[in-house]
Design a protein that fits this description.
The structure holds two protein chains of two kinds.
Chain A: E1 2-11, E2 14-24, E3 29-33, H1 40-47, E4 55-60, E5 63-64, H2 69-75, E6 76-79, H3 91-101, H4 107-117, H5 133-145, E7 151-155, H6 163-176, E8 181-186, H7 189-195, E9 198-203, E10 206-211, H8 213-219, E11 224-231, H9 237-242, E12 247-254, E13 257-262, H10 269-278, E14 282-289, H11 293-303, H12 314-326
Parallel strand pairs in A: 3-8, 3-9, 6-7, 7-8
Antiparallel strand pairs in A: 1-2, 1-4, 4-5, 9-10, 11-13, 11-14, 12-13
Helix pairs in contact in A: 3-4, 11-12
Chain B: H1 2-16, H2 19-45, H3 54-72, H4 74-82, H5 85-89, H6 95-116, H7 119-127, H8 134-159, H9 165-190, H10 195-203, H11 205-210, H12 220-246
Helix pairs in contact in B: 1-6, 2-3, 3-6, 3-8, 3-9, 6-8, 6-12, 8-9, 8-12, 9-10
The chains are: A alpha/beta, B mainly alpha.
């Protein structure tokens, strides 16, 4: 459904995306993951015919985004990150305008249908300026869905929503993914993990990794992390654990809470439990923690060789942001 | 063609959902009404003076030059400010359809306001014995329509350059004032000779209106002038929208 080869876009001297190549199959939810400024929006804008690439080729549903731009635009539903809505139109009029521009038949039925799908019936005749952020997000999504497109491109669909709304939108995207090919961008890693069949990690305009969320996680988790909780003071416990074979990277998170990694292929947990008890500590809890996509992401983007062509070192700052938002 | 009409009719309707449209119509008709009344007063006291269409056509043309920026400034600059331009540029609509649709919406709105001013010649026809000369009414209104087309065209083109409607407004007003008032004194100061002066004289917006159309003569040259300004503006507007895609 989406085919991208050697896609490159320059803004003046700044290279926003560099030689991207990826595919998306029909009925797939493809996540586009990266820090702010990584090139996600640029790629999406090229794919929906908003701007031409500097180099490379991109096809949507078999149509070239430059030479057959109108055909592409007919088949793509696009929700930009900025949520472009006309505040002085009602929800119904706005959606009708969008449907008219796409020359749909039975426009009113189509609009009513999408309003129902997005649970906007109560607000159909409200002015968009009076809607809350969450409702606007739904109107934006309704606009992208109105012509039942083959490909849905959603730029940061959950940004600025409260947790309940985020869950709602994610459920909706999963549902849409059954009938449409969905390309969504996000800088929240757990979102990609929950929603997408496949994730493309992009940093500094380059693809760092492409895989399913599970496999990406597994790729860097030959080791497992285990957290233990003991009652009272845990002074000296790190030294005790240090002597046990098969564990590494011991760290104290809080007093009484220690995390360590088990080395691949080893099971030191029974030994750890015995040692803790015999050393006189009260073992309250011991459980494995999966290495999250956050860690994978940070590891992947950190391993990237530095780019001589982009002197401003923005990704480091962005990673911090991602870290704090993701957890 | 269908897209042009869809975009134009949305723009047209939108004017009436904001107070701007009513304010523009109110101010225009009020000013014209005052001029009209004063001219009738003068005619009542000066036996030799018979008011004709010029008593409202001249202020109408001048007022249009001043209010058109308020009509056109929003058309594309507002889309850019709201980001909704992204929506239109990713909809299956050609760039020229977008620009012409915007132009048509603004143009039709101005024509609606102009249509109301028909009451002035109708009243005048009743008041003046034996009725007013019909020729200047028809040619004058053709001139006004052509003028509106060209002004809205320039307005749309300038609007496409800005993402701030107020900046677009001020620029449009400046350009109009230049074309309507300032070019005339320039040609007078520079004297009669030379080809450069001919070009400047040719660009003089008010001259093309007042020289012939205003006096009851439908001149082909003036008609072509206004139509080509409209076409050129819409072409440049389209180029500007297309250039916007590359940034």
């Amino acid at each position: 459904m989406i085919r991208v080869e050697g896609l490159t876009k320059d803004y003046g001297p700044h290279r926003a995306i560099d030689d991207l190549a990826f595919n998306a199959q029909e009925g797939e939810i493809l996540g586009f993951l990266g820090p702010n400024g990584a090139g996600k929006t640029t790629t999406m804008r090229i794919l929906c015919g908003y701007m031409p690439p500097t180099l490379g080729k991109a096809e949507v549903s078999g149509y070239d985004v430059v030479d057959q731009s109108l055909e592409v635009r007919r088949r793509v539903g696009y929700m930009p990150e900025t949520l472009p809505l006309y505040p002085d139109m009602t929800v119904f009029d706005y959606l009708k305008y969008m449907a008219d521009l796409r020359h749909l038949k039975n426009v009113e039925d189509r609009v009513d249908g999408v309003i129902e799908k997005m649970n906007l019936e109560m607000r159909a005749s409200s002015y968009i300026s009076s809607l809350s952020k969450g409702l606007r997000q739904r109107v934006g999504l309704a606009q992208a869905l109105i012509h039942d497109p083959e490909v849905l491109i959603l730029d940061e669909p959950t940004i600025g929503l409260d947790p309940a709304q985020i869950i709602e939108v994610r459920d909706l995207i999963r549902e849409l993914g059954q009938e449409h090919t969905v390309l969504l961008s996000t800088h929240i890693l757990s979102e990609a993990q929950q929603v997408c069949n496949r994730v493309i990690i992009i940093n500094n305009g380059k693809i760092v990794a492409v895989d399913t969320p599970e496999r990406l996680q597994a790729r860097l988790t030959g080791a497992r992390r285990v957290t233990i909780q003991v009652g009272g003071d845990s002074d000296g416990l790190e030294e005790v654990l240090n002597n046990i074979p098969g564990i590494a990277h011991i760290s104290t998170n809080l007093d009484g809470n220690i995390e360590f990694e088990t080395l691949p292929g080893q099971e030191p947990r029974p030994e750890v439990a015995k040692t803790i008890v015999s050393a006189g500590y009260d073992l309250l809890e011991m459980r494995p923690v999966g290495i999250s996509l956050e860690n994978v992401f940070l590891q992947l983007t950190r391993d990237e060789p530095s780019h001589p062509e982009s002197p401003e070192d923005e990704p480091i700052e962005d990673e911090k942001e991602v870290e704090s938002e993701g957890y | 063609m269908r897209n042009i009409w869809i975009i134009a009719s949305r723009e047209y309707k939108l004017y009436f959902s904001s107070p701007v449209a009513y304010m523009i119509a109110f101010v225009l008709l009020l000013v014209l009404g005052i001029f009209f009344f004063l001219n009738l007063q003068v005619a009542a006291f000066q036996p030799g003076f018979v008011p004709g269409v010029e008593v409202f056509l001249a202020p109408l043309a001048t007022m249009l030059v001043m209010i058109t920026p308020a009509v056109t400034t929003r058309l594309l600059a507002e889309e850019k400010r709201l980001g909704t331009i992204e929506l239109l540029l990713t909809a299956p609509v050609r760039d020229w359809e977008l620009v012409i649709g915007k132009w048509l919406g603004g143009f039709l709105f101005l024509l609606t306001i102009v249509a109301i001013t028909i009451i002035f010649p109708l009243m005048l026809n009743q008041l003046v014995e034996p009725g007013i000369d019909q020729g200047p009414v028809i040619s004058g209104y053709i001139g006004i329509i052509l003028l509106c087309a060209a002004l809205v065209g320039i307005g749309v083109a300038i609007s496409s350059l800005f993402s701030n409607p107020i900046a677009a407004f001020v620029t449009t007003l400046g350009v109009f004032v230049f074309l309507w008032w300032i070019l005339d004194p320039i040609t007078q100061v520079m004297g009669p000779a030379g080809s450069r002066i001919d070009l400047i004289r040719y660009l003089n917006f008010s001259d093309h209106f007042f020289a012939n159309l205003f006096r009851g003569v439908i001149d082909l040259g003036d008609t072509i002038f206004y139509l080509s300004v409209t076409a050129l503006s819409l072409f440049l507007g389209t180029v500007s929208v297309e250039m916007g895609r590359w940034r």
